Amino acid sequence: MALPSEQLLLERFMKLSIATAVLTIVLKVLAAMLTGSVGFLSDALESGVNLVAAVVGFIALRIAAKPADANHQFGHGKAEYVSALVEGAMIFVAAALIIYTSALRLLNPQPLEQPGIGLALSTLASVLNLAVGLALLKAGKKYRSATLQADGHHLLTDVWTSVGVLVGIALVALTDWLWLDPMVAFAVGINILWTGYKLLKESLSSLLSESLPKEEHAELDARLAELEDEFDVLFTSRRTIASGRQRLVYLTMDVPGEWTVLAAHDIADRIEDNIDELFSGAEVFIHVEPAGTVHRRILRMP
């Protein structure tokens, strides 16, 4: 569960993304209207998808921040993965629209008007997307937000889209090869299809109760090794789940058979506190077994 201050910060980032999407749509639509370029039009279409995705992401962040309730006893953290799925699907929609419009223009090429103004407007939009996209990725990684990371990747995809369009429009202006405009737009559409596929794949994997990242698992294993030596216990099973910004850790702990329930409970509490210091806000579940008992060890099964 995110702290209130952290939640407000994440929501501000998404509001920034929404405002950026609105501004870039205006700039790119103006560029498309002034030049008649299908490349600029395809770029504007993708920014429209950015706006829808950012709004969905903002709503998902709000839902993910809700506390656990009777129907969602482990919280609502996975709402962020649903947002990333929606964003991936929206990227596919944008790609389909871009490929369709570029195919029509390829069959019916048209000369461009005022390409210089269009290039300037699109460049400004690209700079805005680049700055906000990098900021979202940095914050998303820091706060483990799938929504911010997905939106950041989407904005950077938009930047590459715009770069391709800018190069294509510049070449058309220099060479009068009108077919370059729709061909660049078509290539852009294929590229963002690949981006949408990768985003959907990552989001689906996370929805299927994916474990913590490898680097966090390594930190957990190192800490558990220290705790085994300190408390004379043995962790025979360890499982983790990443649920949005929430971490769930399940441990089976073997203790000396002569320990009382109170002593084992006291050690378990201290271990939970120790893991909470490592991963703030993590929920830790510890099953206690007497040492030497034969029981199922899930991670060691073939």
From TrEMBL:
It is a multi-pass membrane protein. Signal peptide: none annotated. It holds the Pfam family Cation_efflux. It is found in: Membrane. Keywords: Membrane, Transmembrane, Transmembrane helix, Transport. Residues 239-290 form the Cation efflux protein cytoplasmic domain. The chain crosses the membrane at residues 47-65, 85-104, 116-137, 158-177. Residues 15-208 form the Cation efflux protein transmembrane domain. It comes from the Bacteria. Its main location: membrane. Belongs to the cation diffusion facilitator (CDF) transporter (TC 2.A.4) family. This is Cation diffusion facilitator transporter family protein. It comes from Corynebacterium simulans.
